[in-house]
Design goal:
Blueprint lengths: L7 H9 L8 H26 L4 E5 L5 E3 H14 L5 E6 L6 E2 L9 E9 L10 E9 L10 H4 L8 E7 L3 E6 L4 E7 L4 E6 L10 E3 L10 H11 L10 E2 L5 H11 L2 E4 L10 E2 H14 L3 E3 L16 E2 L1 E4 L1 H12 L4
Parallel strand pairs: 3-5, 11-12, 11-13
Antiparallel strand pairs: 1-2, 3-4, 5-6, 6-7, 7-8, 8-9, 9-10, 13-17, 14-16, 15-17
Length: about 325
């Protein structure tokens, strides 16, 4: 940690000084997200003692069983963001449609999409989980409720993206298009403190992260790539190490720091991919690109995709630049 203690709020304020037109609304919005993250972190760490581990009888819009902590995290995010006058509409993984701002609260210019608790299927096993968020400027007229179209903008229009990982420590990582910075929650201060300034992902990594139980469902090009990275070849520093947690935030966070590639390709079971474009692929792609990496759906840049529905799914190949280019060469047929 640097000798000068820099909190998340201070860092955002110093960044905003580059923009004379800044109003401070974005700082307030990020403070709301950070507050929600602190609450989720506390309850995640205490979940086993507070009776909020385990499943409910509910099924979410994704067709997945809802964990009790999913509900808490979702409600915490919504309540933290709906009243401050900074947002005009929200979307959550747990919501069927858009989440409007209640009529009694003022409307703002920001659109927020979020996955309140990524990796929640691992909660009961005490595996790292996370919150992912994505922020846009609205495109609908100001002063009116936000619309679905506000939430379907391509990822390159994001003004901010970030995630919070709840593990051995709680860490918030975000970008506004000016580099990627990580902040660790210091329990003694109750503040997120800058611990990882200007994160850069290595150009090439030694790790590949994929659920290999889906191998027989993949296209032959993906099978060939996985066979390639597992072969012994000292000249190309192979084999790569297989590391798959099953919590996307945790897998990509590790690769962001150490280098590597995370893959969730299309398959016979999920022909359009499994991960959601709006609140999983787009924010993670923005972060990884800002750190010097790449993110594609196999053919095109993730951030160039224009979504047509709120919970649209996409294949995802994300991580170190050279590793993503390699898998793209297999998919395109340049390598066999």
């Amino acid at each position: 940690m640097s000798a000068k203690i820099i909190t998340l709020t201070r860092h955002i304020i110093e960044e905003q000084r580059r923009f004379p037109e800044a109003t401070g609304k974005f700082t307030d919005l990020m403070n709301d997200i950070a507050f929600a993250a602190k609450l989720i972190s506390y309850h995640t760490n205490k979940a086993g003692l507070m009776g909020i581990l385990g499943e409910t009888e509910a099924i979410n819009v994704q067709g997945e069983i809802v964990k009790k902590l999913d509900i808490f995290a979702n409600e915490t995010m919504v309540k933290a963001l709906d009243h401050g006058g900074h947002t005009c509409v929200m979307v959550s993984e747990e919501s069927d449609g858009i989440i409007p701002i209640p009529e009694e609260y003022p409307l703002g210019k920001y659109v927020v999409l979020f996955d309140p608790l990524d990796g929640s299927s691992n909660i009961d096993a005490n595996v790292s989980v996370g919150t992912i968020f994505s922020i846009y400027n609205r495109i609908s007229p100001e002063g009116r409720p936000g619309t679905v179209e506000d939430c379907l903008q391509p990822g390159h229009k994001q003004v901010c993206a970030g995630y919070v990982i709840y593990g051995s420590s709680t860490m918030l990582v975000y970008t506004t298009g000016n580099g990627v910075h990580g902040f660790t929650l210091d329990p003694s201060y109750g503040e997120f403190i800058l611990s990882h300034p200007n994160i850069r992902i290595p150009k090439k990594g030694k790790i590949y992260s994929v659920n290999e139980s889906n191998y027989d469902y993949w296209d032959d090009s993906i099978k060939k790539y996985i066979h390639y990275v597992k072969q012994i070849d000292e000249a190309t520093d192979r084999p790569l190490n297989s590391r798959y947690i099953g919590s996307m935030v945790a897998d990509i966070h590790r690769n962001l720091l150490y280098g590597g590639i995370f893959l969730y390709p299309a398959s016979k079971k999920a022909p359009h991919g499994k991960l959601r474009l709006g609140y999983e692929a787009n924010p993670m792609a923005f972060i990884v690109e800002q750190a010097g990496g790449r993110a594609i759906d196999g053919k095109q840049r993730i951030l160039n995709i224009k979504g047509n529905k709120l919970h649209q799914r996409v294949p995802l190949f994300i991580g170190s630049e050279q590793d993503v280019r390699m898998v793209q060469e297999y998919i395109s047929g340049k390598r066999a």
